[in-house]
Structure to design on (261 residues):
């Protein structure tokens, strides 16, 4: 049977996926528990800190679900970028094998993070529905999948670009960490947009991730307030542009990236 390039890509990606899973979770079952416990702990801490918002600022939706539908997409976005940025360096020994390319590691790591955070999202929702009686039914499932896919592709493009830039300028890793921290506070993860003055909203709307997270929430909740200025068009344009530029840079430097990693 003739082996095509697509078949090779599938086999390499699957092998890398299994390797990344073993590396991510380790040999102990505690590794699997920690992956779920870490974002859950983060959500609990934020609930304690911002509990007053549940009554004073957010009568429309439960604040717990508001946090979950903001934090999980953001954690997925952040983790994909960080993981892809370091993937070439982490897998440098594998590039001695001709079929293995840096791009294969990008795909395998992205698939792993999507699997992990999708599982975490489902587990948290089931837990909140079972233990606390929250309504966890998704209002618009197809729109939720579309918005999730947009966040994944956006992070994928940025992650590839960061990986190539880190090869040319290693200090970019520090900049990306700071950038992601700032992004966490300006993407309406912990606060509703409708409480902000319009003069701040004008600046925040330049953040494409904010649009995607708000659209994610709109597709999850039946009665989520629609915010003026939120649109899918802007994040789609940013995603396409970023992905095109990142793939162009990768194509230009892929041999150096594999050789020097």
């Amino acid at each position: 049977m003739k082996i095509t390039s697509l078949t090779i890509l599938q086999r390499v990606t699957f092998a890398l996926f299994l390797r990344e899973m073993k590396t991510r979770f380790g040999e102990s079952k505690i590794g699997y528990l920690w992956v779920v416990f870490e974002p859950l702990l983060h959500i609990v801490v934020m609930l304690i800190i911002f509990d007053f918002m549940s009554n004073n600022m957010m009568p429309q939706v439960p604040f717990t679900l508001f946090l979950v539908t903001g934090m999980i997409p953001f954690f997925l976005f952040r983790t994909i970028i960080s993981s892809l940025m370091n993937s070439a360096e982490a897998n440098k020994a594998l590039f001695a094998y001709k079929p293995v390319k840096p791009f294969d590691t990008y795909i395998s790591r992205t698939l792993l993070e999507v699997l992990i955070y999708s599982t975490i999202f489902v587990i948290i929702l089931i837990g909140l529905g079972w233990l606390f009686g929250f309504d966890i039914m998704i209002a618009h499932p197809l729109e939720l999948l579309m918005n999730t896919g947009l966040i994944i592709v956006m992070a994928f493009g940025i992650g590839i670009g960061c990986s190539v830039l880190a090869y040319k300028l290693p200090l970019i890793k520090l900049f990306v960490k700071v950038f992601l921290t700032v992004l966490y506070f300006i993407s309406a993860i912990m606060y509703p947009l409708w409480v902000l003055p319009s003069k701040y909203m004008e600046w925040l709307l330049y953040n494409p991730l904010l649009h995607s997270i708000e659209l994610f929430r709109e597709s999850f909740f039946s009665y989520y307030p629609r915010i003026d200025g939120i649109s899918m068009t802007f994040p789609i344009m940013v995603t396409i542009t970023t992905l095109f530029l990142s793939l162009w840079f990768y194509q230009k430097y892929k041999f150096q990236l594999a050789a020097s990693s």
About this structure: The radius of gyration is 19 Å. Residues 166 and 173 are 6 Å apart (CA to CA). The chain has one domain: 5-260.
